[in-house]
Fold this sequence. Notes:
Blueprint: H1 21-35, H2 40-54, H3 63-72, E1 76-79, E2 94-97, H4 99-114, E3 126-131, E4 135-142, H5 154-165, E5 178-185, E6 188-195, H6 208-225, E7 230-236, E8 240-243, H7 260-272, E9 278-285, E10 291-293, E11 299-301, H8 308-323, E12 328-332, H9 337-350, E13 353-356, H10 362-373
Parallel strand pairs: 6-7, 6-9, 9-12, 12-13
Antiparallel strand pairs: 1-2, 3-5, 4-5, 7-8, 10-11
Amino acid sequence: MAINKRKGFRFSNYEAPEQTPFEKLFDIFKELITHTSGDVDEALDWLRELDKEYELTDENYTIDDFIEDLKAKGFLREEPKDGVGDGSGGQKADLSITAKMERIIRQAALNQIFGKIKRSGSGNHKTGLSGRGDEHMGEFREYRFGDSLERISMTESLKNAQINHGIGNFHLSEEDLVVEDTQFKAQMSTVLMIDISHSMILYGEDRITPAKKVAMALAELITTRYPKDTLEILVFGNDAWPIPIKDLPYLKVGPYHTNTVAGLQLAMDMLRRKRNTNKQIFMITDGKPSCIRLADGTYYKNSVGLDDYIVEKCYNMARQARKLHIPITTFMIAKDPYLTQFVRHFTEANKGKAFFTGLKGLGEMIFEDYEQNRRKRLKG
């Protein structure tokens, strides 16, 4: 009697991958250093408190051992306090993160926020327009006058010649030639605006850390996956100023109002210098515009409600960006009804987009919108 062997799935309890004591602590430390804006001492203080509560270490591997490993692996460096001494004497040196650690933090943010993109493979950012491009589609068509010789697929062309003429009378004609279709890969210039006004840490909610993580993830994504694209980052409070990608882990909020107009002006100035056709502005904000700089250099501020003068200036900037073919995508992480109405009117003036995300899902939405906006826009 034949035995019927059934095929199927076998389920078992999930077992977390083995991690060394250093790896376990390092995962926590990367989160803490982001929350503390690069302050190593504060991050280590928090780590020690967590160790007391959750017993993260034992006598075989202590926090001090972890710190020594961080220094040995090039993640931390010692700097003399106040520029005195060499850090080897009796005076304790300050600890700071290295460029290597800054890169690790950006990679961690990318994996945490955009981790799903690893499974999607390459070629997700095409224009849908075939022709002379740099992205192979894996599809073939007949040769047309003007196609470059390097695009001819010799394997497929020889196969055609064999089918059309046979082995005995083998020859290659123009009708046998096929070329592989390619697609244009659009280049995109992006400016990411981050609100660092005081409201980003008000009401007991840390809004700056998620925004900071998204910025680091987007920076790592573009520099590693889309090296032809450009990303510039600016922050805005009472004024606006650019910051280099390497300074993102140290980003803090300040006692600022929200000068959205200054941020938009600087963003458009940055994009005017770019030669790419595709340009866009991403703006992460949680509050209403409450400040504007006047022609005489003084500041006009009003935190009560929506100030008509400031709001109209914002609408004018949105319309100006629209004339320059620069869409603005606003990621609103507050949910006040009157602010939602302002963002809707602002978006209508620019013909851009707005996402009322809250903090959860902010990274995924920014990535999806970035993917979509990379498609080449043809102007009629």
